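Hi V.,

You were right to ask for the full record rather than a summary. Here it is.
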Amino acid sequence: MDERARQALDLPPLPDNDNEGITPVGPYERFIGWAAGLPWWAIILGIVVVVVGYSMLTSEAYRRVIRQLTDNPQVSTDDLFFAVLLVGDKETTTGMLARADSVETVIQQLIEEVDPAEADDFGILVSETQTEITLRTDDGRTITIPKRDIVDEKRTETPDAIQVEVTYFVDTEIVTGTVTDRAGDTLTIRTVDEVSETFAVSRVLSRDEQGELVTIQREGEIITGTLDTLNNTSIKIRVPGADELREIRRNEIVELNLPTLTLAVHDPGQERPVNPGEEVRVAYINGADLTNVLKELNRLDTVDVPLFSVPGEAQVALVGYDSLDDALEATSQGEVDALLYLDDGPERLAVDEWVTAHPDANMSVVLLRECETGCQVMLKLEDDAITGRIAAEDAEAITVVTTEAVTIEVDKDRILEERRMEPGTCALNNLRGCNAGIFLTLTVTFRAYALALIIGLMFGILRVQTNPVLYAVSTLYVEVIRGIPLLVILLYAGFVISPELRDGLMIFDLQWLGDSMPDVVIRLPKINLNDEWEAVLGLSFGYGAFIAEIFRAGIQSIGRGQMEAARSLGMSYPQAMRHVVLPQAIRVVLPPLGNDFIAMLKDSALISVLALPDLLQLGRLYVSRTFRALEGYNTVAVLYLVMTIFLSMMVRIIERRARLPQ
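Predicted structure:
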């Protein structure tokens, strides 16, 4: 407005100086304005996190719980995997399938597989199916091959017999230990761990000149426990009251009593064919519970004995004798077909010694089996002076490495089966071993959210379709899942869906239409889900319904003209959705997707109901063990807070980068 106009409106003239009449802003006002613009919520939160973090890191109680909740990660480790491997070779043989089993193979099968529900004091009635193949080879030998060891089998029917070519495992052994290196074509496995013991300094006998080795006077120790692993070099037992297995080298053991099962047969009747319905008489010592004995030897499965190469039944009668001498005499005279004897003391080899001392007794020991795992054992260590490497020493005690680690190399080509291959110690060079606590929480969250995005995108697109069937199916999923609590969905995934998938989920049964219909059932292939994937499945399906609604709203926020313009350019509906609508919709839905991701991270605490060692579950275990609820749950809360704040910052950064220009 110029000066003439201002005069016409009777307004006062403008001052000559533009700043004249305006009060200048002072330092106080400028400071208040600057302070008001600061993100005080972030400053206060940062101060709280620093104070709480400092107090936690300087407190030993908090450090202990943090180590547990973070899976106690190491800087570096050699314990890459804990492995149980079946190592051996394959062999192929050709022969004629035997038409009947002998007394010896029937009794051996009885020993290996006994159904305790069918056992009593008078005998065992055996239900028999074919579990092993007995071949008569071209050179006249008769061999029995368990079907579990067969890799490939080819049969040719002939009028007189069955020609069989079998490829099976031979020279197998179980290798148990810790994988320390997987380089090249071999695995380096530590089969014996290093063991250290602490002694009083007064028991030191001598030292070497360099001061690295020391000789200690050690008294023999008697150890009783449950056998876990037994091999040629060491034995691992679980001692009552100890948290970890104790490993002892075999050459340090003076006396070892293992439950030993002996099978001796009467030679004249050893190869007698056993037909369906016939009886095999087995002697045992009165007072010995055969069922519990076999259970202790870990041989209680099902009883399968092939008779004439078809399923059949044979009566196996147990005949009790008051003493071992009476049972041996009866077996040598042919009153019974075989003798079963078990002992876990000094007399455990009595049958084998008796047969060796009586070569004219018409008896042979065909099986001498020691307990391999799961039974009670007693051992005594030798009284000796041991020499070991000094690990630590003070004025009163000295720690000596009494057992050095033993490592072997296994050719990968000779590994027939990985019976167990679990990640080892959590460390920076072995992140696969970080599978508990905060690592498990993050792993489950990322996997579940990735699967939930796929489910949500698919059902979100179906929710905007004009096809009534597709719209009805997607709406049914969204409404049902959103109406069920997430905890119920997790329990359903863990205890309903997972067992059904493990047994082969039935998707079609023709007899649903009536009993007169053919018995036609279609099942999905059997799928074994571990606990972690059960949690991923439950979280993803629970959040998939909410993400589907987010995608539906984002797609519908894009004007109809975008789709019409794309179709007018010759694009198909999928092409238009992929190249035109979805890129714009994703920019719109990024903020709610980020919020759902943070919400899923917090809701992942619910997977503790599936007994997974996530962040919350480990915190609960720590509290139940130490009764320090304040430190335990404080640390859980702070770790969740730190993760959600970090993810919130990442979501904001992604939103700013993906924001459309104004």
